[in-house]
Amino acid sequence: QVQLVESGGGLVQAGGSLRLSCAASGRTTSTISRYNMDWFRQAPGKEREFVARIIRIGGLTIYADSVKGRFTIVRDNAKNLVYLQMNSLKPEDTAVYYCAADLSPAGTPRSQDINYWGKGTLVTVSS
User: Fold this and answer.
1) Which residues pair with 24 in a beta bridge?
2) Helix/strand number for the chain, H first, E second
3) SS3 88
4) How far apart are CA 76 and CA 28, in angstroms?
5) 35-82 pLDDT, tens per residue?
6) What's the rounded Cα separation, in Å, for the pair 100 and 62?
């Protein structure tokens, strides 16, 4: 069992930056090292969508086209932490952001591929 807790959300003006954190806990000291780690988001009235992924081996990263070049996902296996650095934020980035862990093959994960979800943190970008 893995528990994921997000933090770092808040209100920011368009063009600003935020860094989201995801703290993982579980049975082992390096819980997240077994998993690919992801960020998804869900805007009001919309379906949850993939944002970013960092593969458990090698650290390969994958991004949604909508955030490519603006967001960066980083993992620290020793500290069981995953970060999402978000720069040049736009009002359309407003959403609840979820940290997730999965064991699926490399690629863009779907919601049904996820093994564990956090409860989310709200990001609001004002124009």
Assistant:
1) 4
2) 0, 11
3) coil
4) 15
5) 999 999 999 999 999 999 999 888 899 999 999 999 999 999 999 999
6) 14
On whether the CB atoms of residues 75 and 59 are closer than 8 A, the answer is: yes
Q: Report residue 12 as tokens.
A: 């920011």
Secondary structure element (H or E) that encloses residue 58, with its range? none
Instruction: Tell me the residue type at 44.
Output: P
- How far apart, in whole angstroms, are the C-alpha atoms of residue 61 and residue 72? 9
**Half-sphere exposure of 103 toward its Cβ, with a 13 Å CA cutoff?**
5
Residue type, 2: V
Type of residue found at 83 = Y
Length of the chain: 127
CA 95 to chain centre: 12
What is the H or E stretch that residue 90 is in? none
